[in-house]
Request: fold
Amino acid sequence: MKILVINCGSSSLKYQVFNMEQEEVLAKGNVEKIGIEGSFIKYENNRGFSSKDEYIIKDHSDGIKLVFAALTDENSGVIKDVSEINAIGHRVVHAGEKYAGSVLITEDVKNALKECIELAPLHNPPNIIGIEACEDVMPGVKHVGVFDTAFHQSMPKTSYLYGLPYDYYEKYGVRRYGFHGTSHKYVTQRAAKMLGKPASELKIITCHLGNGASITAVKNGKSFDTSMGFTPLEGLIMGTRCGDIDPAIIPFLMNKEGLSLEDINNVMNKKSGVLGISGVSNDFREIEEAAEAGNELAKIALETYSYRVRKYIGAYAAAMNGVDAIVFTAGIGENSGFIRDMVCEELSYLGVSIDKELNSQRGKELDISNSEATTRVLVLPTNEELMIARDTKEIIESL
Ligand code: ADP
Reply:
């Protein structure tokens, strides 16, 4: 079975084709700058071929057509005909309270996703455009929606309700939804495998630390609580997002700085986080370099970031009445031994103790705990595309 995975953004789309027999990636790439000047497609196959070609790509349908042309190219393609693709798995950010798992896309599903546009105005519209563009180009093929919010639908009300009038939850759906669900689910499954126990018997805290960052308490294989909320702004301090702040700061700053709603949203989403604190960058490699060179604010940014992660780990260990393993994943979680070390250094009360040598390695699945540890610390590269492909296969096979 061959599955195409599509992740559509507003002006870009990423794609991967899997041969599900060996879960092998046959080809992957991305289309960038859709509808703007300088658009191009990048493509690489499993035989070492890679290319980057510029075209006028006026919309996502154009982009998808180019993806299919690349996949079926006589020399560098990986399939003879698009009919070899058995199904397409689409990443969709928000499915509200409607779906707690992946689903076959029907007209009803598309309508439900359109209803969620209000909750994810930047993400759901391009995700839906991607689905419709693929339907256009490949009528007849089955499409599956895999949602960032779905894994977190298992949260109990006590985790997802805010201390606001209950009316707002009922009228507008104001509650915690959580994001990065596909990644949290994937690393939970890998962690269970590594620990040699079913996820249903484990308490795991998964830290997805990328440009956006979230942390999840996974109790018995299910999301019990997560740090992102109504939007992906809540929780951890991120590259450019502020994470948790006192909500009263918002009207205070609007008043002091004469900011509009749009301005303050922009500050909280694009100018805050470790970029806002350090003034250096949102990229942890650059902040770590600046800190090493003696930049005080860069050092404080890294410490504040790590402290917030550690505080959430403590909160989630308390929420689950214990923890068996802490997982680090995504760009920073997988690559920065420095951050992992800072997060873990004051977690001895939980039985955390990491091996410095193991913590300096990267690029593979690792248990970085030392022999004294009673709570394992794992570094597990995430693979959201593979998770989407697996879910798609499962849904197609169940039809
Ligand atoms: P996204 O959320 O966009 O998928 P990623 O999970 O790819 O992001 O994470 C990207 C971030 O990972 C970069 O901004 C950078 O801060 C961080 N990163 C990547 N490599 C390293 C590294 N070697 N050391 C520290 N941070 C890294």
